[in-house]
Design brief:
heterodimer, A: 214 residues, mainly beta, five-stranded antiparallel sheet, three-stranded antiparallel sheet, elongated, B: mainly beta, Immunoglobulin-like, 11 strands
């Protein structure tokens, strides 16, 4: 049956007031349905073309056995000293569970160093620092993930990876993860030359990737 | 037309995966691709793949890639492995071998224009000559 948004016709026998009301209602239904949806009588009718979420100020109430998806504004740093606000996608599992960000993240280029973070769809966060400069000599080093700048702070880091980057020639150096201090959001590592006193190590760069809860 | 105070979800065919994938558009910003991945196992035993994360981040990897020695540098190209990188932020590299090998492996540099990560290695006990074949696992994060 073909949808007819323009009935009743002017020649149909209806009360004048009712006819206008019915006509307006049908037209309103089509106007409403055509927002984001494939229109009537198309081969894909009933399906979404896309889904638009107006930004919510508050998190929704989610019933048991339901799952909510919505958009909320999030403030992120796009430089170490500047923030931007943009809508991100959130999910809430049943019974008003903790809202989890699905999207969100930013890379901040500071000089030649990249520092960034991304939400994972599980709610965990992955952070990285690329080309972080370590000034030798020294037997230990650290990378501080500046609180409040690189996305939400880690509550518990679950995995840490560290790789040396040497833009010049290959040299006999090593690095080893020591720990992550959640209080100061700092990755601590040991380092040294292959031979001799670790405290004599010369300058180098590192890339690190961390995964944890926030 | 999306407003600045809206976000939208939709699907679009991804050239790299040749499948409909999920996209998210934040207000007036450029859309980000949330899903999509691929992995090829060529040559046999080697993995070369890519995946989008929901934030729009793009990760690419090579697994068990043979580096033919003797060589002290190796340029690993990601051209043709999924969408092209427009930015490369951080990477990890690890030697893989069924036997212990006396090598130390480093990232040398990136070239986003050629989608290449150059590695270099040394023998652990000094010297760079006579480095035999080895295998690597390399992961790159970017967009």
């Amino acid at each position: 049956m073909v949808y007819k948004p323009d009935i009743p016709k002017a020649t149909d026998r209806l009360d004048t007031a009712s006819q206008v009301d019915l006509l307006n209602n049908f037209a309103a239904i089509k106007t409403l349905f055509d927002v984001n949806h494939v229109t009537f009588d198309d081969a894909n009718q009933g399906k979404h073309k896309f889904v638009t979420f107006p930004v919510r100020i508050t998190d929704p109430t989610t019933e048991d056995s339901d799952c909510s998806l919505w958009v909320k504004d999030v403030v992120v740093h796009d430089t170490p000293i500047h923030t931007i606000t943009r809508p991100e996608l959130f999910i809430q599992k049943d019974s008003d569970g903790t809202p989890l960000a699905i999207t969100g993240g930013q890379n901040i280029l500071d000089g030649t160093q990249n520092s960034g973070w991304t939400q994972l769809s599980s709610g965990m966060v992955l952070k990285w620092v690329g080309n972080a400069y370590f000034t030798g000599p020294g037997a230990t080093g650290k990378i501080v993930l500046t609180s409040g700048v690189l996305g939400p702070d880690f509550i518990s880091v679950r995995a840490m990876y560290l790789t040396i980057r040497l833009p010049g020639v290959a040299e006999n150096k090593w690095v080893q993860v020591k720990n992550f201090d959640e209080t100061t959001q700092t990755l601590n590592f040991f380092c040294g030359p292959r031979y001799g006193n670790p405290a004599t190590i010369s300058d180098f760069y590192v890339d690190c990737i961390l995964i944890g809860t926030v | 037309m999306l407003l600045a105070t809206e976000g939208a979800l939709y699907t679009k065919t991804c050239v790299a995966s040749a499948q409909p994938e999920l996209f998210f558009k934040r207000g007036l910003s450029a859309p980000i691709q949330m899903t999509g991945m691929g992995n090829v196992t060529a040559p046999v035993g080697t993995n070369k793949g890519w995946s989008y994360l929901p934030s729009g981040l793009l990760i690419k990897w090579v697994g068990n890639l043979r580096v033919v020695g003797p060589t002290t540098t190796e340029a690993v190209s990601f051209v043709g492995i999924g969408p092209a990188f427009t930015g490369m932020f951080a990477s990890l590299v690890t030697i893989q071998s069924p036997n212990a090998v006396n090598k130390t492996l480093y990232i040398k540099d990136y070239n986003v224009g050629t989608e290449t990560v150059t590695l270099h290695t040394t023998l652990r006990y000094g010297g760079n000559t006579g480095i035999s074949d080895y295998y690597i696992n390399l992961l790159v994060i970017g967009v």
